[in-house]
Amino acid sequence: MYNYKNYLLTALVTLFASCSLMLQAACVDAVVLVHGNTATPASWNNTYNYLLTKGYSSSIWGENASYNYLPGHFGLQTDTAAQQYQLIK
C-alpha cells in the first residue's frame, strides 16, 4: 500500500508540473515588428529564430497572423497600427 501512495503522489506531482509548463509556454508577449525602407525578409532571420526559441510559433505571424492586415507602404495604416498597438500593449 505504501508504494501505491508514493507512485500516486509522484504521478500527481509530475502531472501538475507538466500542466504548469504547458500553461507557461502557451502565454507569450505580443511582439510588433516594424521594418525600415531598406529591410528585406532575410533581415528578420535572426529575430525569427530567436522568437522560435522563446516559445513563439510560426503560425502566429505572417499570413496566419490575426493582425496581418497592415501591409501598406504608403503611411495610410499608421492610425490603424497605432490602435492595434494600444490593444496589445
TrEMBL record:
Residues 1-25 form the signal peptide. This is Alpha/beta hydrolase. Keywords: Signal. PROSITE patterns: PROKAR_LIPOPROTEIN (PS51257).
